[in-house]
Amino acid sequence: MSERTPRGAVADPFAALRPEERALLKPSRVPGFEAPMKATLTDERFSDPDWIYERKLDGIRCLAIRGGDGVRLYSRNDLSQNARYPELVDALNAETQKDFVVDGEVVAFTGNRTDFGKLTQRHRLGPDRVRVFYYVFDVLYVAGRDTTQLPQRARKAVLKRALSFHGNVRYTPHRNREGEAYYRHACAKKWEGLIAKRAGAPYVHGRSRDWLKFKCAAEQELVIGGYTAPKGSRTVLGALLVGYYEGKRLRYAGKVGTGFDRATLDDLGARLEPLRRDGSPFADEVKERSVTWVEPKLVAQIGFSEWTADGRLRHPRYLGLREDKPAEEVVRE
Question: Is 189 designated active site?
Fold first, then answer.
């Protein structure tokens, strides 16, 4: 007969760890916000038993910290998300485990595909029309112990026991092998791709090659530096002029003229109007007429088919604004 935890009791999240793994746990108070671990984009595709493979979710990165004052949700740039996702706060506050820090992604779905554009419309459409889920994939702290030095696979085992994953909070499953076959499956299902994670690696705060992005579609954040005048039946603006940072220089990546509906155009216009400036923020010459330049503060998620040889986007489309990343951190992936 398997061991069962009495109803209402807290399970030992470390029960599945080996002695040498338990030795890596560090006593700690509930930590505050620290930058989450970030994956590196790669063209590699591989299968390796020393790696695990998770579905890449197209949403907003979110750390959940629970201590004596309840749950606090933070975006990856340390902005509170409690008011935006109150149902997730409620679900995490209902957990039996009273102290934890977990890492995950807030997403909205269209069918079985995560839809970043839909997620960005939640503030306009409301929570009844845009239901969100929090997919948790890592644990940094639980039950008075810092878990970041545990190997990745061991942290997944701790995470699975630490929370009950009820309501809109979900555990992110993974595969232990067959990364290439899983990648083909992901692309056939029109997922964004996979995240490959080195099974023996600790959790680090910042970008690392121990987490790798296998993308099925080209997509990345870009900074808005201006917009062209509307033509025909289009209102507010014609196309966004976007770029990325190379050191302190904002490099021009092209214009984005698709992916907008009327409500999106109105919202962008209201956000861009107070950012107007006299000259171009781009380091490169931009050969466009009737341009309104803006301070490079807003970050947009852009989908595209590929980069051209001269560093421009091919077939770009607007997916939504990102409020979880400072413009200065946007670089070409």
Answer: no
